[in-house]
Amino acid sequence: MKAAVYNRWLHQKGGGERHAVMAARVLAERFDTELITHRPIGRDELAEALHIDLDGIAIRVIPALPPNRFAEVTREYDLFVNASFMTNQPSAAPHSLMLVLFPSPIDRSWPARLRQAIGRFLTRELLLPEWSDGFYDVQELGRGWFRYATDRACIKMRVPSGSKPVPIEIVAGNFQPDADLPVRCRSNGTVIAEHCFAPRPGAFEAWRIDVDRRFVRDGRVELTLESPTFNPTDRIAEADNREVGLAVTDVRVRHPRHFLYEVLFRRMFRELGLRLEGLPAFYSLDHLETYDMICPISEYSRAWMEVYWGCSGPLLYPPVDTSWAMPRTKTRTILSVGRFFRGTHEKKHGVMIDQFIRMCRDGLQGWTLRLAGHQSRRDIDLAYTAELRRRAAGHPVEFAIDAPFADLQRFYGEAQIYWHAAGYGERVERNPIKFEHFGISVVEAMANEAVPVVLNQGGPPELVRDGHDGFLWSSTVELRERTLRLVQDFSLRAGMARQARESSERFNTSAFRERLNALVTEFVDDAPHP
């Protein structure tokens, strides 16, 4: 049998990617297994960064596809596993599993449902098109927005009654810099119009088509646009890997009802118009029905799955490889490991730097705060790290950015205390995604007998039993006080370190392998056993 594990973020080589790759490693013991992603990455590079043996596991790079086209790719496998953070792609494989790091936020409150109902009413009454097949998500451009089509993209829309042909304008453009784009329009399989768009990146033109009434069914017309595609990565190194054709900003029936939409939502209330355009995709949970099982990585993620999606599933804690853990002669080091970036759940390095500097000013001597992790290469992320360095200048704070695994192993082994602050200063009821969803690095530290002192929100409270194998904190005062207790009390620190190492075994790769195999066996009855 053939299996695939999908993760569009493999190139980031973070904790979520380790979860996906380890799932592939386990499944490879039972299936012919591939990793699917969208950006090229060397297998050796990935294996070294994540410290996972990838022998026998291929990496398949495909264009980033719209949901319906992506589903066709999944048909090639007997078992498909979506292990990609907030990537709501459907599956058409015979057996499907979704691993949820954190659920995509969907507001299911009554005000949100009322807004959705109003949006659906406006979409229907103002004759807005339904982008039903072969389009990517809406994206902004200047003061407007558009959707890229694939080589074959379908639009459905209501049209007013009458006997004359229906006047429809397709407002679109060719964003290739140097080649014409021929486009063919079909309805019910019949070619009804053809047009060639000149290369004008960022510009649109109106292509008018008078649709004969014989193509109208139950007050609706369906148009299919066919065109060649190109991949922006061939010309722009940092672009997403997609196969794109025509850039469509609007498909409009020349009728007063659609004119009203243009005036209200394209000109006067553009922000509301953009929300209206994205409404069907943003609030859809249809893709969940294509999976046999949905497994969150923590109780924290499961709780928010129930809030956002109204569903639950069995836990599958991430695999934490503790086989390499090697407590060494301990140094006076406080360690924190996490990617350097700005984003949804950034690691709050600035909070830790500020609190460590304050401890030093209050008398802490001979200790070092070491911050290790992968550096994201976006300009905003590089600026973030530069600001951290300026903030830490003149104090015993070390930055170990993109350190090789051997160095990281030494850092863990030498550290006596481990800090974790992701989510601090955020409101969990408003931004739950900004908190740590599990905390792989916390478990790695525990396995190396570094006592964790971690924020008492998100996933870490499931890993650390306060006062037994580490400390939880809710305020920076508690962070400093509990760290100081460990600094000053050797016997307390040594006892907690031993308990931490023992507790870490609950989340090791053996536990993950056993749990994942048991879950897969539940819905893949004919899976061959090792």
Could you say which structural class the secondary elements and strand pairing correspond to? alpha/beta
The largest β sheet comes out as: 10 strands, antiparallel
Give the rounded overall mean pLDDT: 90
Number of helices: 14
- First-to-last CA distance: 12 Å
- C-alpha-based Rg, rounded: 27 Å
Helix content: 25-40%
How would you sum up the global shape?
elongated
Q: How many strands? A: 22
Query: Percent of residues in beta strands?
Result: 15-25%
Low-confidence stretches: none
Brief descriptors of the model:
530 residues, alpha/beta, 10-stranded antiparallel sheet, 6-stranded parallel sheet, 14 helices, 22 strands, 32% helix
Structure description:
Helix content is 32%, strand content 24%. It contains 14 helices and 22 strands. Strand 13 and strand 14 form a beta hairpin. The longest helix is centred in the N-terminal third of the chain and has 16 residues, at 110-125. The protein starts with a strand and ends in a 7-residue tail after the last helix.
Question: Which helices and strands occur, and which strands form pairs?
Answer:
Layout: E1 2-6, H1 15-27, E2 32-37, H2 43-50, E3 58-61, H3 67-74, E4 79-82, E5 95-100, H4 110-125, E6 130-135, E7 139-141, E8 144-158, E9 166-173, E10 181-187, E11 190-197, E12 205-211, E13 216-217, E14 220-226, E15 247-253, H5 256-268, H6 270-282, E16 293-296, H7 299-308, E17 333-337, H8 349-361, E18 368-373, H9 379-392, E19 397-401, H10 405-414, E20 417-420, H11 440-447, E21 451-455, E22 471-473, H12 476-488, H13 490-504, H14 509-523
Parallel strand pairs: 1-2, 1-4, 2-3, 4-5, 5-16, 17-18, 17-20, 18-19, 20-21, 21-22
Antiparallel strand pairs: 6-8, 7-8, 8-14, 8-15, 9-12, 9-15, 10-11, 10-14, 13-14
Helix pairs in contact: 1-14, 4-6, 5-6, 8-12, 11-13
